[in-house]
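User: Is it possible to get a 3D structure for a protein together with its bound compound? The compound here is carboxymethyl coenzyme *A. I've pasted both below.
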Amino acid sequence: MSENARLINGEQEIEFPLIIGSEQEVGLDISKLRAQTGMITLDEGFVNTGSTRSAITFLNGEQGILRYCGYAIEDIADKCDFIESAYLLLNGELPNSEQLSEFRSAIISEMDIPEGLINIITSFPKDAHPMAVLSAAVNALSTYYQDQVDPLDCGQVKSSIRRLIATLPTIAAYSHRHATGQKLITPCPELGYVENFLRMMLADEDGNYEADPDFVDALNLLLIVHADHEQNCSTSTVRMVGSANTNVYASIAAGICALWGPLHGGANEACVNMLKQIAADDGDVEKYVDMAKDKASSFRLMGFGHRVYKNYDPRARIFKKACDELLEKLDTDDPLFLIAQKLERVALEDEYFVARKLYPNVDFYSGVIYRAIGIPVEMFTVLFAMGRLPGWIAHWQEMHASPSKRICRPRQVYTGPNGRELPEISERS
Ligand code: CMC
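Assistant: Yes, that's possible. Here is the predicted structure of the complex:
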């Protein structure tokens, strides 16, 4: 392949460098386009725009490949726990046993949150959405550590990162217990990360909770598989906000807000609500498939489709298998799992979905697993945020470490009125 690509516009011919990634993906570097031609590129929704070079996650949507730092997601899900995967994403390499135990202990020892922050969380209305509480609490967390918010100080950033990973489950669980009027259960230093979260969420008023090892494994799996997905909407938001040298807490709070939307992480909650609706409607899957195809209706099949996967989402495959195994072990038939399987079958055979390469995505089966563990539906996207946190942070760090870092500032093609005279108020209609 040549090193440059040529653009011919009338008499003008300009060369642009080609950037080749380690998996032979090719990017056209158009950063000098405007300076040389006066033109910009227009790509609404960033369908075809590379915003950065990144060494964290590789995904190939056509072949259904997903790797963190070169390791296949299937292998990581099989051999690592969430804390180990977080270390990998944050450091680019797997930890040895010493590094892992230092990292794990540092996280577990920091899971408590300041008293003032508990007061903030418990002063929100009980029916507040936990994603609103989560983003507000993450921003508020920084106010208790104001000597550690400099985004350009490596030591401060390192402690902030560990604090964020340590406290997100606590903030999440406290928001749930406040919403449900239950006593808060403080973290227990003898327990693991996932075990702590489950206990803080689901223990009785005296803190009694016996974690089922299958639930711990399933939750680890869910968190690992969500941990990164390259330049998705929330990760791009974290990078964009962080590019202004905004501190890591505020950048992550922004990412949480982006994730909340039903077209992104909020799809897991929306998907289970849709499955419930279908179940209540006599399980009439075909009716909902028809609705999704009807261009006059705004209804979409939640948990289907993806901007980059034009093949089966490998994460959905992992979750479907885990769903199967968990429900079999628990010896329960979740009717929503049965509806999900039927919906998948019908949609995958339907010409509309086949032609558009719409496959079940990561949010399709995750909700059924959360339900089996006992996580309430409004907490699903919060769990996604807990999983995605190391990925967000890894990208925030990578962006700051890049020698080519600049504030993110897209351009536009202006389509409004041309310059005009400002009329006096009495002359306006
Ligand atoms: N149900 C019915 N039709 C759909 C769906 C769906 N779920 N998704 C896409 N389409 C159709 C869409 O109407 C369009 O049809 P046409 O070409 O006739 O106009 C075509 O497929 C392409 O869709 P698009 O909206 O241009 O695709 P996009 O890449 O902009 O959007 C998406 C991707 C994920 C937002 C979209 O597929 C969607 O809304 N899915 C449902 C929500 C969902 O499950 N989101 C979770 C995504 S995975 C996890 C994450 O990213 O957080």
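Strands lie at 4-9, 12-20, 26-28, 57-60, 65-68, 71-72. The two ends are 61 Å apart (CA to CA).
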